Amino acid sequence: TQRFAVGQAVVEGPRVEGPNSRILLSFEPGVTVTAKVGISYVSVEKARASLEREIAARSFEEVRDQARITWNDQLSRVRVHGGTEEHRSLFYTSLYRLYCMPSDLGVDDEHDAWKSGVRQFTDFYCLWDSVRNANSLLALIDPDLERDFCNALLDIAEHTGWLPDAWIAGNSARIQGGTSAAILIAEAYEKGIEGIDYSKALELIRKDAESLSPAPFLYGRHTEEYARLGYLPATINSCVSKTIEYCYQDWCVARLAEALGEKETAERYLQQSRGFWKLWHEEKRAFCPRNEDGSWVEPFEPEKQDRDYYRLGNIYHYEGTAWEWDLSALHDMEGLIERHGGPESFEKHLDRFFDGHLAMWKEIVLHTPYLYHYVGRPDKSSLMARTILFERYNTTPLGLPDNEDMGSHSSYVICTSMGLYPVYGQDLYFLTAPVFEEIEIDLKGGATLTIKAPGASDKNHYIASERLNGQPLDSTWVRHKDIAGGAVIELTVSDKPSGWGPLRRPAGAR
To answer: What mean pLDDT value characterizes the chain?
Structure first.
């Protein structure tokens, strides 16, 4: 029986269900109609229970006002002062979108495949994108949510046998670059996020990486080829980009295993993580496709896209060029810089990249403006990151340059605006000139991270000096442990490069 409130009356009628169900109601002119709708992934009964629990006894105005309070409470955990009205709007709508995916299914509520006492989510769409910055940002500003993401993914692996790269409506979706959850979980350990069984996590990650997958386009890896060759051959779609992804994931796994005392596992995965250099073409100075016999695929031009829509993506590099994917070798930036001829040559390579070789502003390149830090030019990082921010993002309906992809583009806006950009899979945050004069972030345990930059504006692109908790810094970055318990970062900003930065460069995580 369905119940309808019409004016002051409640109309009850027979329950109707099926593909052609419909209802026809007529109303007198001037009547206000209020519809209360329950939604469930599981059943009509659960939808009704949610409706009764959440909104049945509340008016439209009460529901609206509570939603406003809930979002204000969430968004006000990060407070910005200064900047333009346009950029404040952009910042907070970005922070809002960061929290829109994945969808929270609760604990044993809106997930009916199994009951395990673990908070579940849907629409992890997808980790391959979000792990590049959004998850790192959440690890700082909302570590409990990041913990629950990790535990949900591990619970899925326990029950399905595989860690998903994308998880939608209770199923793994098409994998794009391997098992990105390995990066997320290893980073969570390095950042000290508690409440995760990391030993069990390592076991599940290894199972995912080492088992023969019946469908490596949905979960797991192309294990046989990767183990035999150390790289993926040209017969496998997106072979070069997947090799780079596998190797970075292996490097993250090696660090997790070493921290947990699994030295043999750590050494094996560390050796595997170097396999991507087998695809380095010395003459072309790029990671290029090879055949199974080791011969190079020819012709091949690193600066051009090799897209083939009939093969569901790119033939060798997923959604990008070799030039773009080369800059994702974050576990051996020193090796990459050396192969480009040293810091000055790599700096010129980055200059050329941004001056005509950046094909698309996709998630795989969101970190690339910050790579100037590795050659002692954080001023160029700051200028390029902010230039892209101001040119590609705005508050109009066309204000996102690409799909949001689970908070990735929003996180670029948020982190660049704050002048605190994370290196995914690691505990590093690059410092650049923020857009706002002051940012306050409420951290776990009641602590506050404050970033002060008097005079910050859309013109003052550069940092002239910096202090952390009142003490001068001799680096152009901070580590998670330096700020996660609360800290004050003080920056002097300028409209001209000041020479700040070359004192010490990041080690490049070799």
So the answer is: 93
Cα dihedral 422, 424, 425, 426, rounded to 10, equals -30
- Residue among 289, 256, 286 nearest 270 (CA): 256
pLDDT tens for 147-162 read 999 999 999 999 999 9
Per-residue pLDDT band at 310 (split at 50, 70, 90) = very low
DSSP-derived secondary structure letter, 61 = H
440 pairs with which residues across the strands? 79, 450
Distance CA 470, CA 91 (A): 27
d(CA 54, CA 59): 11
What DSSP letter does each residue of 380-414 carry, written as one string?
Answer: HHHHHHHHHHHHH--SSTT--SS--TTTHHHHHHH
Coil/strand/helix, residue 258: helix
Instruction: Return the closest-CA partner of residue 500 out of 508, 510, 491, 509.
Output: 491
CA dist., res. 353 & res. 361, Å (int): 12
The proportion of the chain whose per-residue pLDDT surpasses 90, expressed as a percent, equals 84
Q: Where does 142-180 have alpha helices with state H?
A: 143-160
